[in-house]
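Q: Joint fold for the lines below.
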Amino acid sequence: MALDRKIAYIDLTTGKIEIKPIPLDVRKKFIGGRGLDAYLLYNHAPKGCDPLGPDNPLLISGGILTATCASATARTHIMAKSPLTGLLGSCNMGGFFAPEMAWAGFHHLVIKGKAEKPVYLWIHNGEIEIRDASGLWGKSSTDTQWAIRKELGDEDIKSAVIGQAGENLVRYACVMTGIKNSGGRTGMGCVMGSKNLKAVAARGTMDIKIAHPIDALEHNKKFIDQITSAKVNKTQGTLGTPFIWGATNCWGGVRTRNFQYNQMEYADEIEPEAIDDIATETIGPHHMTGCFGCQVHCRAQYKIQTGLYAGRYDEGPEYTSLGAFGGEPDCKKAETVLTGNHLVNQYGVDNLEIGSMISWAMELYELGILTNKETDGLELRFGNDEALLEMVHRICNRTGWLGNVLADGGIPASEQIGKNSFDYLIQVKGMNNLHSDERATPGLALNVATASRGSDHLRSRSAIDLYHLPENVLRKIYSSPVPYDGPLSSEHTEYIGKPWQVFWQENCYMAVDCLGICKYHTVFLGATLPNFEDWPKVIYYNTGLGFTPKEIWDVAERCNNIERLFNLREGLTRNDLKKGDTLNHRYFDEPCRRGAPDVIGARIDREKFKVMLDEFYEHHGWDKNGVPTPDTLERLGLDKEPTHLL
Amino acid sequence: MDKFLTVYADKCTGCRLCEQVCSVMHEGVSNAAKSRIQIVKWEAEGRYIPMICQQCEDAPCQNVCPVGAISRDKDYGFLNVNYEVCIGCRSCINICPFGAMNYNQTTHRVFKCDLCGGDPQCVRFCEVKAVDFVASTVLSAQKKREGATRQSEAKKNTGRRRRTRIIPNRDTSPTKGRRGFKIPPPLVIAV
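A: Joint structure:
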């Protein structure tokens, strides 16, 4: 039974391990995955704790549906207080780790303390062991995984590991599993590194009993048909996420040269079809691979063709790698993108963050704020491919003055660089933005400004906004399971109705993360994909637990509120440029310079944005400062938090 | 019945959905260790090969069984283990060249593919058709045509250097993207 998976408390300082069941009433309240992690973080992290100290709990989890007979239940969620933002740290990765952990008997791990020397956790059929990892320290992310398999003599072990970036406490280091699956954002790899925890290895052969196996199987087939019939998923399955980059670039929504432009020119060599050609040539016509139980298979496989790393196998590049090593630094070579993607996978560092940081440094260099003295003679100009890749090495190894400074994350780096460098840092809550430009899309800008883990597109992006769907279609999607009769607009450049869309998406993505499934299987890129109405059956057939769509919505709202409570406790205030729900001034002051007619000249209107934010808070039941009102907390059963149920 | 499970390993995306549905279908549990089909992976090189019982004509498992517990199903042609007779010596696991005979650690019994009674779930769920359930004659005809197409292509190209990949004619002028999308020139007000 999925419900009999346990929670384990591991203290790395004392070596004490405690295993407990997860009570049903907690499941009903938080479901699992990210939702339960948020509850655990709020309860276990002391107020104002040092993100790199032993008190910061590292939470690793799978969702309630992980490894059951539902589609794409591959997601692993990782949470802690972030060393990058000082607020909520939260990341989510695909691959095969969470299912293996569920087969080994666990849904949630709470890792506290700090080991004296490098260790790794070995989770095997209901047992957890802390093992010496001295031999693994210094290894890259994939080498670590293969070494663990060799040491334990099982080729089917799946591990969540850190690379050298995590060991060197780069503030935005990832947790990696497989070749390229990474829990990228907010520096959870850095938290692992601070605990001297090199890896968590899992292998399990324990049954997950399905409550109604034949129903689950038949329903899964229907579900899969719904998912594979969406055109967007077919395209994903051919080109991977770069297809979005190609389309967005044509339209003028790709951030280039650190927000100076919104479209990349002469991008022929790194357009998705060109990358697809390289993958076909090096790996073969069927070069796509997928995460556990997923038919979308959106990960491309490739080999680097030329250069220092020629012949190396890797997976991707994703949308963000194209942005990080293509659009942002204005580098136009496929080799640079593919090599950069390989390097971040090996070092275990967030490609999005590192790409943005280097591009920011490039703009500062061109402005004269950084000079050759700081860069140790490196010509850190836009379009300099060698300098870009050199900076990746320097940041991950913390070599050179600038490498060391940039490894500390945007805001600390801007304090060390000084002058007006902060003005050019495109961040929200201390985390850099995705390589997309939201100036022409106020709804998406609101999403970026309010995402709970800092600037992020996977928390509440109403991406279907760009499809210009008829209003009645939008209304059908957005007025269930909670009725909504306010305004809605098919026009992406409008401000009206967007707060509700972002609010709805926020709850939708939270529900998905609680279930442990992928966002490509819900209303993210495809409007026809499953949402609240479709999930109760999946949960019931697989676990026997009954939920109504409204109950799932309530859980999502509860979990979002507890994330908000955590952020408020750690110092979030509405208008704080460094820790608030605001955008960089460039969103408001600099109009878009390129792109389609509806994009050129677009920028966010300050006043309208303020009204939008007010309305967004109102939908949540928060006051003007973004603080949940006592009534809201009581309605969601959060008025007595922290309750320490687990 | 002549149909058999055939594997197109180059199409496999390694998602293991087949393992998931197989164990749910047969055991009512999700557990890859109890699946009849298993995907063997070389992750460092990105190669995935689904391994499954080939229902051999001259089956080593049937031949080696000391008590004759393995017999062929009359309707569907798969090899079936009779648990009334099986003594659990695991000789069949040892001899199978495909590793297709498995061992259930809960019931302490061997188990193998039974083609789901004619509707293999792995085939039903595999979206890329890396596993297929076809008649040998159909497969053979299909392979013939594929081979012939390759030869035909080669013949077409006789006298020219053989090209394995068609490189599209890329227009690199600044006003035209690769797929014909117009990218407007940069505005002069910039900078």
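Q: Anything notable?
A: Chain A has a mean pLDDT of 94. The first helix of chain A runs from residue 24 to 30.
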